[in-house]
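Task: sequence design from structure.
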């Protein structure tokens, strides 16, 4: 019986190929973990109201490097072109008065931070309504319809159930379920 042995060159090539695959897989796992960590930090921030966050709104001069994804804001999250959901900081959405249908650009920075920027606001209109609460979900009743609003808007504008508020809704979407709070009256 003959013994089959690999030459040193074959072993080096095989090890190099295996190392390249392992390195690529590790990089992918690290990127996914960073994205998940940023999402978890954002969720924690929205629950406890901590302003020291990794997930932050982008600024015009921001030159962050990383993966860029554009998507549509649905009232709570951004939906990417592949259907993937991306967490939008509730405080950012509230303070920026994002409306269902707005186009956002998300840069996932090399350090795992999420940097959002509104790049395509949808047409808007303002209406007045009354704040109501249904089992912890705040809504504004206006024009015979209820629009959900973010808890961050309730706390940011210091509004209470029964208060009159001005909300912003998409002008061209009669089926919109979310609104942004413009002001408390």
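Answer:
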């Amino acid at each position: 019986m003959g013994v089959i042995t690999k030459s040193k060159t074959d072993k080096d090539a095989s090890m190099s190929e295996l190392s390249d695959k392992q390195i690529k897989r590790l990089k992918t796992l690290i990127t996914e973990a960073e994205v998940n960590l940023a999402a978890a930090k954002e969720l924690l921030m929205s629950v406890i109201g901590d302003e020291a966050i990794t997930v932050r709104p982008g600024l015009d001069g921001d030159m962050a490097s990383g993966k860029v994804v554009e998507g549509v804001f649905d009232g709570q999250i951004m939906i990417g072109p592949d259907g993937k959901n991306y967490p939008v900081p509730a405080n950012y959405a509230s303070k920026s008065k994002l409306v269902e249908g707005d186009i956002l650009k998300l840069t996932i920075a090399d350090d795992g931070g999420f940097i959002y920027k509104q790049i395509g606001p949808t047409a808007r209109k303002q209406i007045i309504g009354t704040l109501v609460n249904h089992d912890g979900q705040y809504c504004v009743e206006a024009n015979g319809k209820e629009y959900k609003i973010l808890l961050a808007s309730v706390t940011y504008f210091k509004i209470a159930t029964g208060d009159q508020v001005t909300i912003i809704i998409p002008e061209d979407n009669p089926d919109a379920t979310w609104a942004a709070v413009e002001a408390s009256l």
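The longest helix spans residues 8-48.
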